[in-house]
Design brief:
Elements lengths: L1 H23 L29 E3 L4 E5 L4 E9 L35 E5 L10 H6 L6 E5 H5 L1 H16 L2 E7 L7 E2 L4 E2 L3 E8 L6 E8 L11 E2 L1 H8 L9 H8 L10
Antiparallel strand pairs: 1-2, 2-3, 3-6, 4-5, 6-9, 7-8, 9-10, 10-11
Protein name: Endonuclease
Family: Belongs to the DNA/RNA non-specific endonuclease family.
GO molecular function: endonuclease activity
């Protein structure tokens, strides 16, 4: 009888301990303020922030939208040397300590039926433990349908890696289309975008080439080319000026058309 009681008490303690760990433990930060590793995004390529909440991490930059509890855009560079297959231990999702209002808690996603979909893919940052871990800030995730996240969105991420491997350095900016009246999840009312965009740039000067994708947040077997739009179209849908620091002539030439020449699908 004593053994049974002791066993029951130990089981109860273990269950309570696990519940407390699961619900209240999170690491403080993944950032290293004085770390030697950095991969800053060129300021002249950054989009305009409609919220004024720009956050710079060592390996990407974002603009956080508190009303939507996620980033309106995440911008980063992808280089050939980033494309490694290092085996990384998957860390916890944690709130972004650099967001002044704090980013949404990951527990908002629990039981919602939606994936915690990365905007900057963790797979693009396996070359460094810090770079990899930084992608697990909740400022870098958005609620995504599971089939969309594992399907066409993943196909697009793999396509971008393929281009980087073949062409060299790319600049990427991505996010959900944040608008009024979106469905919400969790206690903090995290908005669920109905569509996502990704803008990919290669080259520089007169040799600059840009592709923009606008994809409904549902799985599709259609070719990625079917979701190509102009940068102007993405700007219209999101209200974001993506290349505001570029000359007007450059913007007119690059942003107004869809030009897939020189991009191998």
């Amino acid at each position: 009888m004593k053994n049974r009681t002791l066993y029951a008490v130990l089981m109860f303690v273990c269950i309570v301990g696990f519940w407390l760990f699961e619900n209240f433990y999170t690491p403080a930060t993944y950032s290293k303020p004085n770390g030697p590793e950095t991969n800053a995004v060129e300021a002249n390529l950054l989009p305009r922030s409609t919220t004024g909440e720009i956050v710079e991490h060592s390996f990407y930059t974002l603009s956080y939208s508190e009303p939507h509890e996620q980033a309106e855009w995440v911008a980063y560079t992808l280089k050939q040397e980033h494309l490694t297959y290092d085996d990384r231990e998957r860390p916890y999702f944690i709130e972004d300590p650099k967001v002044s209002t704090k980013s949404a808690d990951w527990r908002n996603y629990r039981g919602s039926g939606y994936d915690r979909g990365h905007l900057l893919p963790a797979g693009d940052r396996r070359f460094s433990e810090q770079a990899y871990n930084e992608t697990f800030y909740t400022s870098n995730i958005s609620p995504q349908n599971k089939d969309f996240n594992a399907g066409i969105w993943n196909r697009l991420e793999q396509q971008v890696r393929y281009w980087c491997k073949k062409e060299g350095e790319l600049f990427v900016v991505t996010g959900g289309v944040l608008e009024e009246g979106l469905p919400q999840i969790g206690d903090e009312d995290v908005d669920v975008p109905r569509a996502y965009y990704k803008i990919v740039m290669k080259g520089s000067g007169d040799n600059t080439k840009v592709l923009a994708f606008l994809i409904p947040a549902e799985e599709s077997q259609k070719p990625l080319q079917d979701f190509l739009v102009s940068v102007d179209e993405v700007e219209k849908r999101t209200g974001i000026d993506f290349f505001e620091k570029q000359p007007d002539a450059w913007q007119s030439r690059i942003e107004s058309k869809v030009d897939a020449e020189g991009w191998k699908f």
